[in-house]
Amino acid sequence: MSNRTPETHVIDYRAAEQLLAARDPRGAVKLLDEVIAVHPENTAARLLRARAFFAAAQLRPAELEFQLVLEREPDNAFVHFALARTFERAGRPEQARRHFRLAAALDPKPEYLQAARFDSED
Question: Whole-model pTM?
């Protein structure tokens, strides 16, 4: 184990947020891997890593990480929406629709409602 402190992990988390915002998702994943290795229970770090995987088009790792976050926060509309977008990009429309609809049911934001396409019967 490294001699890194909890403060270092907070700094790494913030740096990972900045890297993701700067369109360097792989750099963000690298920082978050270390944070999560030491703090596997850190749901915020896992959600950020899931978003970074998605941004890096690493869809399977993104899916697994979003699902892990959902196990801990099953009523998190954003995570359902993000998982749905991951399924959509992976060409899995049935699973995508299910999670888009869960997101819209949990939080009727316009973008969630539009993605859920409740008006279409297909």
Answer: 0.90
